[in-house]
Amino acid sequence: MKAGPLAVGILLVVIAFSGCGSSSTPSSATTTQVTTAPSGTGSAATTLPPGTPAALRGAHGSVLRAGELPGLVPAGPLTLSTSARSLVAEDPPNQRASEAASLERLGFVAGLNEQFKGDVADEGGVSLVEQFRSAQGAKGEIAAQLKQALRRGESEFTVASIPGARGFGYSGSTTDANVAFAVGPYYYLVGFGAGGASRLTRAQLIAAAESLYRRARA
Question: Where are the domains of the chain?
């Protein structure tokens, strides 16, 4: 997924996800939101949206739990996208067709997206999982997102504890860091960002990604 930045004030978390909290849905697409409530599956602070595919209802559909990104809490509905077009619904209009086509080539099936917020303005995070038709498709999405990040001037960092994971982000007038990895045909991304210096560190982000990775492999 290749969407625009996470919208938390001037926050730029990652251009590695799309359809975050999408409110406009093409006629051939489905994007569903559900209000947050305690649950024993997925995030500790959210329930799954109606219509969530069975493949995303078990461990493979996991997103970060409250507290795994210190200082951040779930910011609202967990969002379900069941088509590439719904996933990119919040991208700039001139990018939607090409982004959806790329996802379709990779074999996108469905995805869940959760937004997080901090207790200060312009601070937030994201956790998402996307199902592809094959493991190759999920790995292809990692490569596509890393390529886009490097093109934007972000730098790569090592995530040695998760096989095949890639980290990328930047520090400057804004700060962001993201970790992307795959488990079979499932693509995961976790990230945080702030309008200035962030209280979170890359080490904390990697620790959160490690927790998610362990759940997803269960």
Answer: 31-216
41 alpha-carbon distance from chain centroid? 17
d(C-alpha 146, C-alpha 86), whole Å: 22
Cα within 13 Å of Cα(18), Cβ side: 30
Burial (Cβ within 10 Å: 0-12, 13-18, ≥19) of residue 14: buried
Q: What is the pLDDT of residue 46?
A: 57
3-state secondary structure of 106: helix
Residue 214 sits at φ, ψ, to 5 deg, of -60, -40
For the stretch 176-217, pLDDT in tens is 999 999 999 999 999 999 998 889 999 999 999 999 999 999
For the chain, give me the number of helices (H) and strands (E)? 4, 9
The number of beta carbons lying within 10 Å of the beta carbon of residue 157 is 15
Q: What is the pLDDT of residues 107-145, one digit of tens each?
A: 999 999 999 999 887 899 999 999 999 999 999 999 999
- The CATH fold assigned to 31-216 is Protein Transport Mog1p; Chain A (3.40.1000)
